[in-house]
Amino acid sequence: MFPSMNRTSVIAAASLLAILAGEAVATSSAAKNVAACCTKLQQAYPDQVVNTNSTLYESWNERWADTAELTPSCIFRPLSAEGVSFAVKTFSQGAGGCGDYCPFSIKGGGHTPWAGANNIDGGIALDLGLMKQTVVSEDRSYIALGGGALWHDAYTNTNGSGIAFPGGRCPGTGVGGVTLGGGYSWFTGQVGFVSDSVLNFEIVLSSGEIVNANATHHTDLFLALKGGNNNFGVVTRFDLAVFEHSQMVHGGLVIVPADSSDKVLAGLYDFTDDSNGVHATEGLQVEYFMNATTGDGQILLWLIDTDATGDHAALEPFFEMEPKLLNRVQTTPIADYATSIPAVSRVLMTDATFVNDFETIKGVYNITMEIMKTVSHVPDLTWDFQFEPLSRHTIEASLARGGNIMGVDTLEEDLLVVFLMPLWLDAKYDADVHAASEKWYRAIKEYTTSVGKGHSFEFANYAAWFQDPMASYGAENLEFLREVSRKYDPSGLFQKAVRGGYKLGTV
Fold first, then answer.
1. 20 to 30 Å CA-CA from 407: which of 303, 325, 355, 454?
2. Beta strand pairing call for 330-333 and 234-241
3. Residue 227, pLDDT score
């Protein structure tokens, strides 16, 4: 059969053919499963399913970032938890054969920018975007937010109500992704992470069962969902604690030149250091917005005091910083404070955490600027990186509300989260920017560890696909998450069928 080949070559060729045949069978089987699932959904919910031939397909498949756009075989937009339940049961059965299932993605707000995070090639896209209810309870103790709601919906619909709650700082982000990733808000210094304020999760399990996880029912699942991402089911409603508030805040955006960096970083260190005094109502985010080609840029200072009548003492150095290129500080309703980030072409986020230390902050800054030079050839590349304080008083506020699974509950030092968010236009440079971003991530981890200031925590809300936020919570917490997964998802559907998010490894 192979006259010019020796026995070893024949065996190798046969092995290759077997592998290719196996892949073909697997591909054929997956396509059969997906076709069966799409058909079942179409028959049950004809007005809520589109496929690639539909004129609605392109608009339904839009994402915040072009980098997240893939080509699902069909898209399903449920209106209720019951619709989600039907879909999940359908996905778990596939075409009906032993071991069959349908790969699918879960989209809330669709703000995570890497391909596969909330979309899928060839599978089914489960889009919760029509489940965007925002209802304040009669006793004004919580707000019920649909699994597909955006923070914009929540802020707009409660404007003027005299209540407040922690939520995404960018209104265009989804309630689901922010909350299941932990969530950092302008109220974090007072009430901890967004997930800490959740009183109840309504969630559809892999069996299709709809359960409520809270402080008295399914308490292990309740804890796991506070930072555990999409590993346990599809959350269809979040009941979030609210509190009385004037809804007025003081602050805004201040922009200073890039050559103000030394005093900005010194101010960042002082602000993050709790030994300088706890300022729970005051929030700060430092954002560098740099042109990778020219090296020019600006520093955006996002400043807020959620107590509009306070003295704003911790923020005063930033209010007074000169020269200013822009000053939009004012007293304003919180619904008007934040603005959504417009849709972007290509973007990636990756993050790391380290102990608040001035020399380390400068070292992180220097590394970030050096790595920027490796992508200076990429046209129209904005090298955006941001610092976010994670002071001890934030963790104390988190623990006061029951805490979470993110592994920062024993924090003894003030931390800083730094995340990189390059933005570019041309897909042909994707590999270059991705490589530079991963190089940055590993360089920051290595440097901060080498100087004794590293911390394992990785914020899932800002993480890239090459990171492992679930493992960063610590071995004990990771094993707890795996135990919860085995209990509530014994078939492992959300580990094998949902490719997006951050998985738990061997469950």
1. 303
2. unpaired
3. 98
Verify that 215 and 263 share a domain, yes or no: no
Pairing of strands 198-204, 297-305: unpaired
Structure token pair of residue 166:
């922690």
Q: Which residues are CB-neighbours of 247 under 8 A, at least 6 positions away?
A: 159, 160, 161, 162, 163, 164, 333, 334, 335
Q: How far is CA 139 from CA 142, 149, 237, in A?
A: 8, 22, 18
- What is the pLDDT at residue 7? 43
The answer to the question of residue 189 being in a domain is yes
pLDDT score recorded for residue 341: 64
Closest CA to 312 of 275, 349, 279: 279
Q: What is the pTM for the complete model shown? A: 0.92
DSSP letter, residue 299: E
φ, ψ dihedrals at 468, nearest 5°: -135, 70
User: What's the domain range around 8?
Assistant: 1-245
Domain of residue 155, CATH code: 3.30.465.10
Given a cut of 50, the residues of the chain with pLDDT beneath it are: 1-5, 7-26
The DSSP code sequence of 202-269 is: EEE-TTS-EEEEESSSSHHHHHHTTT-TTSS-EEEEEEEE-EE---EEEEEEEEEEGGGHHHHHHHHH
